[in-house]
Specification:
The structure holds two protein chains of two kinds. Chain A is an alpha+beta fold. Helices cover 52% and strands 17% of the residues of chain A. In chain A, helix 2 packs across helix 11, helix 3 packs across helix 11 and helix 3 runs antiparallel to helix 12. Chain B has six helices and six strands. In chain B, the strands form two sheets. Chain B has a four-stranded antiparallel beta sheet with strand order 2-1-3-4, with helices on one face. The chains are: A alpha+beta, B alpha+beta. Chains A and B meet through helix 2, helix 10, helix 11 and helix 13 of A and helix 1, helix 2, helix 3 and helix 4 of B.
Amino acid sequence: MRPEVPGPSHPRLAASGRLVAVAGILLLAYKLLVNDRAKFSGLLVGLTFSVFLMIEMTSLFAGVLNRSSSTVFNIGASIWIMDPAVNTVANTIGMPDYVLDAVRSIDGVRFAVPLYSGGALVRLRSGTYQPVTVIGIDDTSLFGRPSVIRGSIEDLFAENAFLVVKDAEYSKLENPGVGTDFEINDHRGVIVGIAEVSTSGLFGIPTLYTTYQRAIQYLPTTRYTISYILVEPKSPADTVRIQRAVNRLGYLALTKEQFVARISDFYKYQTGLGTNILLMTVISFIVGLSISGQTFYTFIVENLDKFGALKAIGAKGHELVTMILFQATFVALTGYGLGIGLCAILIALARLKIPDYAAVITFYNLGLALAMVIVIAGFSGYIGVRKVLRIDPFDIFRG
Amino acid sequence: MSDVAISAHGIEKWFGEGEARTHALRNVSFDAYFGEMLFIVGPSGSGKTTLLSVISGILRPDDGRVIIDGVDVWHLDDDELAAFRLAKIGFVFQDYHLFPRLTTLENIAIPLVLRRYDWHEAQAEARKYLRIVGLENRAQLPPVKLSGGEQQRVAIARAIVSQPDILILDEPTASLDGETGRMIMAQVVYLDDAHVTGKCHPSQ
């Protein structure tokens, strides 16, 4: 008597669903891929390297952009008013005092304060000179002040008072403590507090905070002294009205986000930095695509007879496609994860040696790299699928 | 189920173009019955493999019909044909075509995985057939660590693991020495409680 033939109608098989069927085929594909260690390693190395380069490049760029807007983040005003020619925080164009008065009279403005932002040369006790960024905040409200971690913010009203920001550049001022004095443009300056801010600056120089009036008194300025006017609207709905009114005055009012975007656009499109980073990212993508595409193609070609045997045994076309796409996706996502890990480790190590290392892994970077990896996986999978679907099982049969 | 396992009628197959055109199968007709062991014997290049491919739904003939267990196989589409082969036919290829990156046990389980068995269940079932071909202690070895005869037995176990109605062996002893070849054939005969069609090397 012939034995019972298990098949799709067999009770044991009836209980197993499509998921089990797919899981078995995927496990088979996984083993075929992973057990070929040389090819699998080659694929992973190629993809990891590619993802690492893509994320490192874009993270560096994101870090630079983030730091280029550090003053905007640290001050935290909702609306920034400036001369229309201003593109970055560093290059300010002074505005006359009457603009401040005019802004304060605009309907919807809760308050408006001046901000000074400029550079100076500090002579330290050792006799060395150190360039610094000086931020002069409104004398009355101290709006935009940093978080003071040592000393007291009220001491900023004392004579010659400055706050120093304790960031990666702090040591360039010879690690001053509260009470340390220095010379700034023939004036005496005294550190009355040590502060911290959320984002360090781009140019690798220390930052000092003082009052607006002291800043314009101590530092050489142009005829007009207000770098920015910081505005808080009565409600978010007043923002557009304030912007229109400021435009009528001949100046530019930007929300914090708009100002950050304007600064980013400047670095992206007017400095060549964006183009270079984009080129490096594209090169990384091409390298990854080439390495993984070529290795995956070799992997498929070397296993072509095995896929042909599967086809002859009874694997359907869509099952083979599923296997190959799974292999391409698995290797791509593994390489993606390893690339991110490698990049994160390298950035962490770099920061141990270079505290000012500007690299930030953002969700945008990750998304961009993921999209590129998906393209690589799709391309690799496509060439594999094309090859496998063309196999004639008869070629396998006749050996 | 009819007693006729495979019925071939007027099979014609040509290969190549122009002067290289070869008439590989010329009006081949035969019936093979369940329970029968059929040997196709001929010199090299006489079209044995081509005939096996045509009657097993792998190579489309230029003319003629192939009816397997009542189904005209060349009227099925590709997916139906694949499913039909998987359900009805077990293959032992000339070059075994075992997967070197899988263990012996996993190789045998492949048809069951394609037949939607759970992976572990397929392994358990495959182990029974590994025992039948006497290679239970080789379960976790890759095929490359096995001798030619052992690899052939693994290929046979893979062909019969899903208990197909028809077993097709293409030159199952071609690359084996005489002693091992006789042992393999003895094993096939032993396993012939299922209905088997087969082909062996002219030297057998």
